[in-house]
User: Fold this.
Amino acid sequence: MYEVIFYLTAAIAVIAAGAIVVLRHPVHAALYLIVALLALALLFFLLGAPLVAALQVMLYAGAIMVLFLFLMMVMNLRPQPGRPLSLPVGWQGPALLSLLLWLEIFLLLGRASPDDAGSAMVIEPRAVGMALFGPYLVVVEAAAILLLAALVGALYLSRRGRA
Amino acid sequence: MSQWLWLIPGSPLLGALIIALLGERIQRRHFAIVASCATAGAFLAVLLAWLMGAASHPLQQTLYTWVAVGDWRPTIGFTLDRLALVMVSVVSGVGLLIHLYSMAFMAGEKDQRRYYFFLNLFLSGMLILVLADNLLLLYLGWELVGLCSFALIGFWYRDPVRAAAGRKAFTVTRVGDTALAIGIFLLFSQFHELSLSALLTSATAQWEQGSTLATLTALLILGGAVGKSAQLPLQVWLPDAMAGPSPVSALIHAATMVTAGVYLIARTHPLFELAPQVQWLVAAIGTLTIVYGASAALAQTDFKRVLAYSTISQIGYMFLALGCGAYALALFHLTTHAFFKALLFLSAGAVIRAGGDEHDIHRLGDLGRHPSLARWSFLIGAASLAALPFITAGFYSKDAILAATWAAPAGPLLWAFAAVGALLTGGYIFRAYLLVFHGSGPRDSTASLPRSMALPLLILAALSITAGFIELPEGWPGPHLWSAWLEDELGLAAMPPTGAVHRLQVIGALLPLAGIALALVLVRRERAGQPLPLTTFLRSGWGFDALYRVALVQPYQALARSLGRVVEARIIEGGLSGLARGFWTVARGCRYWVEHGTLERGLGILISGLRFGHVMLNATQNGMLSRYALAMAAGALTLLGYWIWGG
Amino acid sequence: MIPLTHSLVIAALLFTLGLAVVLLRRELLFVLMGLELMFNGVALTAVAAGQHWGNADGQVLTIFLMAVTAAELVVALILVWLAFQHFGAVRVDELSRLREDAKLKGNARGDTS
Assistant:
């Protein structure tokens, strides 16, 4: 059971990724990307990394893709110039794939606890936290500085009056 | 005393160096004094050696290691045993007297510096030769002596005849020197050692009597001795060497250089005893040379050439003694010969000088007015040379040799030749005396010799009379010091039985008198215009000069000329100029091709290649991001593939 | 229990598809999306490996990957917006000012193909 779900989710992720290659509308592509990311989050969960699964949904699918969509909206991107953006033409695909993902999550969560998912070992968020603030402390600090740099860069680059 | 041994050869060497290096600051007339003082230093060192007991035990001094090659280390070392003591006494003593004589004789000479330099250098070379304790050092002295003799014989080199005489001396002795060198090489190759004492002990221990190696080595050493001592067949240089000044002739050709060969054989006599045939050959050569020299001297007209052939003949006696194993007696005759021959040469020099450089004995006789001291000293010398009985030193030494000859293998034959030689000796020397001093010219002389010339003559005359008394003949009461003293080193001569000895002595005493009678007969015949039969043959030294000229000199010169024509002119010159032309052509070709052709074309190709590359590479810098990304991806893929499948 | 190899294969597929997007699509945003896909493929690899070795390192790596990606994406998106604003460029081809013999034409809206 567990394996079936795993491989199905994996297939969803791959198909969504493949769709990005061929689509013409950027927003459609973004939607398929979101599907892929959600599928990946499920995969993380199935591989015994609940923390990362949650983070994936929150950060990637939640924040990063939102950024993408904001930009597309502001840039007013169109597949062909002149046509206004309406309900996406190819909305069926991502919807289908997302539905399938959703069903899977239901199935998983409806069943036993994550410990029961095969004999896959689950690495508790607690362990991840210990690792982060233990051996990898320096890297955490570095990542913080990196985010600071990105922030500063974003502020600077987006100032008005820049030629 | 051992540490002062170096003074004996070192003092004249130092004198020579001073004359050579500081000669600018020395006045011309002082050179003689410097040289004489240096020689006196050597003589004093020798006297000191006598006093310090060198006569009782040998002294030895090693100065320093000359060469260090692997484990062979020849040294500059001197050994003064009794044999060497006799030699250095004679050499330094007679050398000193001759320096004194030269002070007056060469006083008018312009080139004093060169004369005294070579004279001192010669003495040091001779002393090195005698004192050397290894064959390498001995050979050094040998060569040095040869060089100085060349320089001194050809002293008045501006006269081409005299220069040629010097060259002839050098070339002929060179033949002997080469033989000696090969002998030394042979000894070294066998024993890896050139120290004389070690060498002789090893040789007697290892080589059998009559073995090929011993014979060969002895033969080679004999070759060297024959060259230096002017024996047959290498005697042709000595008569011509009279071209040098008379003191030089006295020193080199009476006392020192020509005796070097005798010394060499005496020193290496164990080797000769290992090769009896060679030793007999020594005696044979000596005998033949005695007769040769004496007969040639009988026909000479040049005053000094008489004495030259006389030297050749007398050294034959020494060789004869060596060949019979009577080494001490050879040394005895060497000593007495040094005295009376030097006396004869110095007197002859004085006579020639007083007669205005006239050499011909007939004309000297006509001139007359010879210095009386010269006459008397010449007479004493002649008597000693002829071995007039009892009163002359020559009698004792020569008779001892004749007696020892009888006891040797083929003794009587050798004795017969030697006796004939003694007869002829008396003949030629008194012929010369009579022709010069009893000629038609006035007898009384107006010239008197300067003191520095007179003193050596007196000393030598005294020695010519008295030196023989230290070894009276066998069977006579009285001192027999000489042989006994040298017995340890040189062994005793084998003497014939006493009865035979007495008979031989009687005959030996009569021979010189018969010689004088012969001289009287010859002189009367010559004055009457009847020369000796075979005069031309004898005067030319039995035609040896002509023989060598035809057999050796002319072919050699013809070869040299032909080589010069063919090889040098055609092959070498032609080859060289052809080579030069070839190089020139190649250089021009290179210049044309490389400069105009290859370089330009090459550069052109390079430039167009670079331009093409520029164009191609420029295409990649097109600023298109997707192309860049594609390139990166492709590169990464390639590396990954290589990593997975290859490395 | 999912074998490690299968997870890696899936991750590789995702990575390759992301690379395909980067290379094949000309629009700037699509390139960025392809980059995102590639990053996620790497994240899957990390998590699968962490599961295999049984420690938290895989997850830690993924978290940092997310942080880095976020930072990078922020700056990249601003640049894309600026490019759109100044050059009117939506496609990669239009941003070819780094070529060797480019003549700088200033705000060249008319330079688009």
Q: What stands out?
A: Chain B is about 75% helix and 0% strand. The CA atoms of residues 204 and 270 of chain B lie 7 Å apart. The two ends of chain B are 88 Å apart (CA to CA).
